[in-house]
Amino acid sequence: MTTLSKGTQIKTLSNYHGGAWAPAKTADLLDVVNPATEELLARVPMSTMLDLDDAVNSAQKAFPAWRRMPPAERAKYLFTFKNLLEKHFEEIARICSMEHGKTLAESRGDLRRGIDCVDVACGIPSMMLGESLEDVGRGVDCVAYRRPLGVFAVIAPFNFPPMVPLWFLPHCIATGNTLVLKPSEQVPLTMQRIFELLDEAGLPPGVVNLVNGGKEIVQGMCEHPLIQGVSFVGSSPVAKFVYETAAKHGKRVQALGGAKNFVVVMPDADLDKSVDVLVESCFGCAGQRCLAGATLIFVGPAYEKFRAPLLDRIKRIKVGNGQDQGVEMGPVISQASKDRILGLIQRGIDEGGELLIDGRKSHGQSKGFFLGPTLFDKVTPDMTLAQEEVFGPVMAWLRVETLDEAMAILEAHPFGNTTSIFTSSGKTARDFAYRAEPSMIGVNVGVAAPMSYFNFGGAKGSMFGDLKAHGKHGIEFYTDRKVVISRWF
Ligand code: NAD
To answer: pLDDT tens digits, the chain, 489 residues: what are they?
Structure first.
């Protein structure tokens, strides 16, 4: 068994299926590196189809008995799991911070949001209730049950190591399905530890299974004949691929994709209360959030009002190892990601943006994949910085004269994950929320992340599928509706 919590030697991570840890059947290993120190933390196997088959077969075998277990009994395992997550809260947050680079506070928030989903799934007996009606015909009654479907696949991105898998796992198994989960190969340690806790929770073998790996496993999951549905979160091109491939193979799919989030700042926005929120929205998690508000649109005099206070606050962001006290922003995930962001900064300069704060060297770190906060003014809607998801600590400022012009920028963009408005006018806020196409909207809120009892997911090119993560959609996605019509003679 992999015990990351004990000892410091470099481990090769294992997969988990049939209620036991097993080495992957491959010699193909990837290094897992602490992005703040470049220290080697572990090696993750790029599992093969044989490994995926083992996991799916275990999940398939576990399904009939798990499905028959009363929902209230299934919930008891989730209560135990929740208690274990609480008991090991700090340890998991540290693992998350170590492998991802985000600060400890951000890691705690990441895990807390994941545990919130376990909390909600503990209420499965009431959430799974169906519908019924007497006398749909004379002496004929009708009952609609929710029934689980079988084995589901969950595929996660790197940016929220505990939270995103936990958006899906609790609802999936609480409804009576079994699951095979693939964490991001860039941050596999958090899920390794969480699966140790699932093992400790005593779930029947095969209910939850873990396969480490990369795109081959993703493709295999989309095509596997025993997998009934796929929950995916990641970039839009991969989300589209997963949606199309899994649908072609007859599966249910919910595929949450990338983002380009505009934040509209009106002249009547509250200056004192908004500056910190705006800065955190962009630079929190070093900008590696699908809800990052990295593109500010100032309407009219809002620009002059906010310019100096924002500049001052951004310059004071403390960059460093996320595990250190007082650090506000950690590194980005990898050298490849840093190089990509550096390329986008260069594009911003080449296309005529005014670089007000240059984070390329201002981070003060000798090792690690660090970038300092970077700020561009005079960005126009056609520029790359207003079009592409940067997924790094880069803020872009656009200026318009009216709210209508700001809305036109939002409408023209192919993505629609989230957007926010900062204003003191209820009418303006209502108008904005009504008209804006993204499906997660903030009013004086920088990161409009729906809580676990609401649905999480975007619109347009940010979401492939119609049922979103957690909330009522989580139950809907993982269940079929079975209608029984009865007449007794
Ligand atoms: P990614 O698309 O590179 O990877 C996501 C998953 O897909 C990983 O498990 C990875 O192994 C796999 N994968 C990568 N390339 C693949 C390919 N070519 N074929 C098949 N599978 C592949 O995303 P990432 O870099 O890990 O995460 C960042 C992205 O995720 C950003 O675009 C961000 O906006 C998005 N995201 C969206 C949400 C949301 O709620 N919409 C939430 C978090 C992250």
So the answer is: 334 444 457 999 999 999 999 999 999 999 999 999 999 999 999 999 999 999 999 999 999 999 999 999 999 999 999 999 999 999 999 999 999 999 999 999 999 999 999 999 999 999 999 999 999 999 999 999 999 999 999 999 999 999 999 999 999 999 999 999 999 999 999 999 999 999 999 999 999 999 999 999 999 999 999 999 999 999 999 999 999 999 999 999 999 999 999 999 999 999 999 999 999 999 999 999 999 999 999 999 999 999 999 999 999 999 999 999 999 999 999 999 999 999 999 999 999 999 999 999 878 888 999 999 999 999 999 999 999 999 999 999 999 999 999 999 999 999 999 999 999 999 999 999 999 999 999 999 999 999 999 999 999 999 999 999 999 999 999 999 999 999 999
Residue 231, SS3 per DSSP: strand
Whether 424 is in the pocket of ligand 1, judged by its Cβ within 6 Å, is no
Domain map (residue ranges) of the chain: 11-257+462-486, 262-443
Query: How much is the CA Rg of the chain, to the nearest whole Å?
Result: 23
The CATH number of domain 262-443 is 2.60.40.420: no
Pairing of strands 463-464, 131-137: unpaired
Contacts of 200 by beta carbon, 8 Å cutoff, 6+ apart = 84
Q: 353, 397 in Cβ contact below 8 A? A: no
Residue of 117, 290, 341 to mutate, ligand 1, most atoms within 8 A of C-beta: 290
Q: Is 414 exposed, middle or buried (CB count within 10 Å of its CB: 0-12, 13-18, 19+)?
A: exposed
Please tell me the residue having the least CA distance from ligand 1 atom 19.
Answer: 215
Q: Is the CB of 417 under 6 A from ligand 1?
A: yes
Q: Collapsing DSSP states into helix, strand and coil, what is residue 161? A: coil
Q: What is the dotted CATH code of the domain comprising 11-257+462-486?
A: 3.40.605.10
Q: What is the DSSP pairing of strand 151-155 with strand 178-182?
A: parallel
Are 231 and 153 in contact by the 8 Å Cβ rule? The answer is yes
Question: What number of other Cβ atoms are within 10 A of residue 210's Cβ?
Answer: 27
DSSP 409: H
